Amino acid sequence: MELGIYSFAERLSDPHTGATLSPQQRITEVLEEIELADQVGLDVYGLGEHHRKDFVASSPALVLSAAAARTKNIRLSSAVTVISSSDPVRVFEDFATLDLVSGGRAEIMVGRGSFVESFPLYGFDLSDYDELFDEKLELLQLLNANEHVTWSGAHRPALRDQPVHPRPLQPELPIWVGVGGTPASALRAGRLGLPSLSASSAGTSVASRRSWSCTATSTSGQDTTGQRCASASTRTGSSPHV
């Protein structure tokens, strides 16, 4: 079992003055928190992507790269990267770079996100929500496994034997899928054989979501032995990786 912390990097209120922390103050606190988590022996720190005034980490890979220079052992992950509104090539390159900076400690957790502000911001239609997620996750996995990529889809220009660099220090970047309360998300992770993190939600147990994922993995012909999953409370919380 591994233990870690996941944060959305919310702009919290100062407990002494009640004033909302500035973005610079909050980023500083996040970096100090990651450094402390490393010092006390936690295994992973995950940082969520948001594009709102009340959150400060629109680019988790950039913040985690700053944290990498201040830490030695803790693994550094997004939690989550909103892959549907991102360019998978850019995501892979950013986290491959983080992997090099951190000495092989980077992970990517993809998901749909808690909000939808990134879709109009980057010019995507919410009616394409599911198709965007499936297509871009497919490309991200292909980039992770291959130095030269040939691929075509509906929502991004095609790639034809395109080299993608830098490559990570690890043979491949660990890619997780963040799972909410719906069976569809857990089933998708299971069909792809990817590890999943289940966020807490009313009425749906972590055990149920793990069962959905394992069932989908089994029916797709893959071995469920050793399949990894994690659970997390919403906002910042303790999270066991199994």
Describe the structure in your own words.
- With 242 residues, this protein is an alpha/beta fold.
- It has 2 domains: 2-173, Alpha-Beta Barrel (TIM Barrel); 179-242, no CATH class.
- Helix content is 36%, strand content 20%.
- The strands form 2 sheets. Strands 1, 2, 3, 4, 5, 8, 9, 10 and 11 form a 9-stranded mixed beta sheet that branches. A two-stranded antiparallel ribbon has the order 6-7.
- The model is unreliable at 235-242 (pLDDT under 50).
Termini distance? Answer: 5 Å
CATH architecture level-2 label of the largest domain: Alpha-Beta Barrel
Count of alpha and pi helical runs: 7
CATH superfamily of the largest domain: Luciferase-like domain
Binned strand content: 15-25%
- The structural class is alpha/beta
The Rg value, from CA coordinates, equals 18 Å
What is the H-and-E element order?
EHEHEEHEHHEEEHEHEE
Low-confidence stretches: 235-242
What's the structural domain tally?
2
Outline the biggest β-sheet: 9 strands, mixed
Globally, the shape reads globular
Give the averaged pLDDT, no decimals: 86
Write the layout of secondary structure elements.
Elements: E1 2-7, H1 23-39, E2 44-47, H2 60-68, E3 75-78, E4 81-82, H3 88-102, E5 106-111, H4 118-121, H5 129-145, E6 148-151, E7 159-163, E8 175-179, H6 183-192, E9 196-199, H7 206-219, E10 229-232, E11 237-241
Parallel strand pairs: 1-2, 2-3, 3-5, 4-5, 5-8, 8-9, 9-10
Antiparallel strand pairs: 1-11, 6-7
Helix pairs in contact: 1-2, 2-3, 3-5, 6-7
